[in-house]
Specification:
alpha+beta; nine-stranded antiparallel beta sheet; 28% helix
Length: 405
């Protein structure tokens, strides 16, 4: 036998997509009581070519990876907020998408709102305390391989991270598929898409399949000298539009570090936005997490006030006052707004706590400008106490100094 014959891989291509559908239905019906190795063996008996699609990553790329995760405080649970380990792995891990029961895997998302969707069923909006953390990598090897599960994801959607990832990967896959004739090429592609799809089934019902595939990468392959410490896959909680990562524990322990953690109370979970009330922020220092109190200082810009009448609107003139009845009871706009508690600190702070973007970008101090609109019951410009001078709306710019103390 020559060396070329030795390096050839023989595999079976089924005759139709319907045959593959039947095979993958059998796989989905495998018992969740089987060991990971047994599940992989059953898959390999039915799918003779399950390709591991790997992507080499350079150190400089890895060390700029954005990684976000959360931990939801459960009822009656006590969390040591000063211990960075409190935000790494959940205690006593149950079987997940990329880990078998009892196995620690570092899960993270590539954007700041997906982790909230991942654990949405554990979050009680308006009540739950959530620790939102941001992470980085350091001292990585020059090249690290990452296994991907993006075959079958539609490419070309610029607003979807998963679609962008699929676009780059699928080009390489299509190059490889050119070794086949047209008919088998279509079937091999379909088989690989179905196999990748085992990792992306919604819910926990099929985690015994996806975790077995991950176990094959993290444990079985490593024992054979194949080192792939990172898996990346579409975020099922975001309908396969975002990107998640699962990182093998030994690699995570050596190279991943905590940047910061925010303690928040979630007020809203929407598709591309998470609203929350900030309680505090922690930064790692000397092996501990040092906490800082969140502080908002709102300052109304009285020089930028606009007044709106029945048909026109204009800036309030310098030194121009207002009255509720006559010129004798004139007051400045500042006096009116403060006396009527329109610009109280409590009111202004409520406006900013639903806008967490500055916080989620990792900025310690920022300035945000907002406007509040006031509809007075009876208020006139001091120079025109008539219907023409009656103020319908007041627009007040607010400057917010946001930071931690």
């Amino acid at each position: 036998m020559d060396s070329g014959e030795k390096n050839r891989i023989k595999f079976t291509v089924l005759g139709s997509k319907e045959e593959y559908d039947k095979v993958f239905k059998e796989i989905e019906n495998l018992s969740d009581q089987l060991r990971p190795e047994e599940i992989l063996s059953q898959i390999q008996k039915r799918v003779s070519l399950a390709v591991i699609w790997g992507m080499p990553l350079e150190r400089k790329v890895l060390e700029t990876f954005p990684m976000h995760r959360i931990r939801v405080e459960k009822l009656g649970e006590t969390i040591d907020e000063t211990n960075p380990q409190s935000y790494y792995y959940p205690p006593n891990p149950k079987r997940g998408r990329a880990n078998v029961e009892g196995q620690h895997v570092f899960y993270a998302s590539g954007d700041n709102h997906t982790p909230f969707h991942e654990l949405a069923e554990d979050i009680k909006v308006g009540e739950s305390i959530v620790y939102y953390s941001q992470w980085g990598m350091k001292d990585c090897p020059e090249e690290v391989f990452m296994r991907t599960f993006f075959m079958g994801i539609e490419k070309g959607k610029e607003e979807d991270y998963a679609s962008i990832m699929a676009g780059g990967l699928n080009e390489k896959v299509e190059e490889w598929l050119q070794i086949f004739d047209e008919k088998p090429r279509e079937l091999v592609r379909y088989c690989q898409e179905r196999y990748n799809g085992l990792f992306r089934i919604k819910g926990k019902e099929f985690h015994h399949l996806s975790s077995a595939i991950a176990h094959d990468t993290f444990v079985s392959a490593l024992s054979q000298g194949v080192n792939i410490p990172i898996l990346t896959y579409p975020a099922v909680s975001k309908d396969n539009r975002a990107v998640n990562f699962a990182i093998r524990k030994d690699f995570a322990d050596k190279h991943i570090y905590l940047k910061q953690v925010d303690k928040v109370r979630v007020t809203k979970i929407e598709d591309e936005h998470v609203g929350f009330e900030v309680i505090g922020r922690g930064y790692p220092k000397n092996g501990k997490v040092e906490w800082h109190h969140f502080n908002i200082k709102p300052t109304p810009d009285y020089g930028g006030v606009w007044v709106c009448f029945d048909k026109i609107a204009r800036p309030l003139k310098a030194g121009e006052g207002v009255t509720m009845c006559c010129e004798k009871h004139r007051m400045s706009m500042k006096e009116f707004l403060e006396q009527n508690h329109v610009v109280s600190a409590e009111t202004l702070v409520q406006g900013i706590t639903t806008m967490p973007q500055e916080l989620m970008e990792g900025k310690q101090v920022s300035i945000q400008k907002r406007e509040i609109f006031v509809e007075p019951k009876k208020l006139f410009i001091e120079s025109d106490i008539s219907q023409n001078g009656k103020i319908k709306y007041i627009r007040v710019p607010i400057n917010y100094a946001v930071g931690y103390e």
